[in-house]
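Re: your question from the hallway

Yes, I did run it. Sequences:
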Amino acid sequence: MAENLQDKAHELAKALRESDEFQALQALHEEVEEDDVASRMLSNFRKVQLDLQDKQMQGEQPTEEEISQAQKQFEMVQQHDVISRLMEEEQRMSTVIGDMNKIITEPLESLYGTPEDEQNQ
Amino acid sequence: MAENLQDKAHELAKALRESDEFQALQALHEEVEEDDVASRMLSNFRKVQLDLQDKQMQGEQPTEEEISQAQKQFEMVQQHDVISRLMEEEQRMSTVIGDMNKIITEPLESLYGTPEDEQNQ
Ligand SMILES: [Ca+2]
Ligand SMILES: [Ca+2]
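Structure:
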């Protein structure tokens, strides 16, 4: 990769690291890590989510038991103050990353067209 | 998104647009567009690839006929000078984008760990 591209990518990574969104996310991660109950609750929740995803990717249907398990855990983490703030902040970060990617891949879209362009053809 | 982040993303997009890899890709796209045979050959090839992908995503098995069709078209485009160069350049661009993404998402990896870290736990 050209040096200029690499420099610009590092500058963007630095700006991301210094952004309010990243700083808030990092602070919440630390808060969760320091709280044994929250930290166990979150890692259980993530494990159940990942297991469900794995099943779906392998074309398997999750059982009703597994779905209600996942829902119960989702409600639990939603009610937990720090974890629910962490998940909101993750949503915000995911929007930032999406917006960033739209800007960065604009040159390629000018070559290949956006999905919307395809539909309008 | 913070203004600084937005500026840095635009600077990176500009660097990408000015990179040798992008310039070469753009030139090859123009070459293909000006060549009716090449342009028809490429869009047929892309259509067959997309149809195959659609089938696989819906969990359908493509027929032997469809697979041999796709293979024949792949060999055809491989033998076409401009299209084969275009596809090589697309490979190169895809590596650039992958390397860029690795740099940009480094801050997030420091929070969530890389897939390799997970496996080593
Ligand atoms: Ca905070
Ligand atoms: Ca060229």
